[in-house]
Amino acid sequence: PKLTVLAPKSGDVWSRKQTIRWSGTDPDKDMLLYDVYYSGDEGASWTRLNRIVKEAPAGTPENGPAGNAGAPTAKAPATAPPAGGKGGAAKAPTAAMSPPPANASNSTAPGAPKRQEPSMKETSFAWDTTEVPDGRYLVKIVASDRLSNPADPAGVEEIIGPILISNTPPKLALQGDPTVDEAGCVHLAGTATAGVPLAGVDYRIDAEEWASAEAEDGIFDSETERFRVKTSALDAGEHAIEIRAVDAAGNHVVEKRKVTVP
Fold first, then answer.
1. pLDDT tens-place string over residues 37-78
2. Could you give the residue range(s) of every CATH 2.60.40.650 domain in the chain?
3. What is this structure's pTM?
4. What are the two backbone dihedrals, phi and then psi, of residue 59, each rounded to the nearest 5 degrees?
5. 56-70, 144-158, 171-185, 200-214: segment of lowest average pLDDT
6. pLDDT, tens digit (0-9, with 9 covering 90-100), for 116-143
7. Would you identify the CATH topology of the domain 2-52+117-165?
């Protein structure tokens, strides 16, 4: 088989839910099955992503009814014969039947064996990256034609990475309160930090359009960046200024300050 990974690409920065995509072909036109793995230790160990562990439902032949496996079914005692052989004589009371197990038809037996879902036929998988810690990861796709050739299957795998996963928003540390110069421009400085490179720092006044802050070193491309803000001249009165830091994964944080222009 031939396998091509379309996403992610090595060096990508991902957050939240992302889609792993690939394409696979077989020279004999055999149906291919796929498995998706990730590694957070540079390939020393792998965790299968397309696994859905389910408990076997109660009432299956291997489990029996929930809460009543192997128990014999109680029978009502036989009715006593009429006393004295005459009709109308009193009969012995019938014992109550044992009630059926609760939810026997659709419950899941505690401790029932678990099974793992089979490999995929689809060529994409939605990965919720919030289920793993932030960090560097490898992604591996494995393709096999074992469905068509169970006795002598052929397979291929592709490893992509590392990619960066970050679901933690950046942090902002503002240097004191905003100041106002003689022209009515507001000045503010601070430092932004993130677990992945920063994509930018923006600001806006009174919930209007966002404008870019200035990186002290000229470009936002590191995990720690110092920045400066200088607004245009503002009208006299109180204003709200918001500072927003965004990282390469799309995570962001916003800080708000009030400033009064005399």
1. 999 999 999 999 987 544 444 444 333 333 343 434 444 444
2. 171-261
3. 0.69
4. 90, -5
5. 56-70
6. 568 999 999 999 999 999 999 999 999 9
7. Immunoglobulin-like (2.60.40)
Which two structure tokens, joined as six digits, stand for 200? 């930018």
Strands (DSSP E) found in 166-236: 171-174, 179-180, 186-193, 198-205, 211-212, 214-215, 224-230
Q: Which H/E stretch holds residue 66?
A: none
Q: How many C-beta atoms lie closer than 10 Å to residue 133's C-beta? A: 12
Backbone angles phi, psi at 212, to 5 degrees: -80, 135
| CATH code of the domain occupying 171-261 | 2.60.40.650
* Residue 244 tokens, joined: 């927003």
- Structure tokens, 201: 């720092």
Per-residue tokens: 111: 């401790």
Contact 255, 242 (CB under 8 A): yes
What residue spans in the chain does CATH classification 2.60.40.10 cover? 2-52+117-165
User: Average pLDDT in the 144-159 region?
Assistant: 93
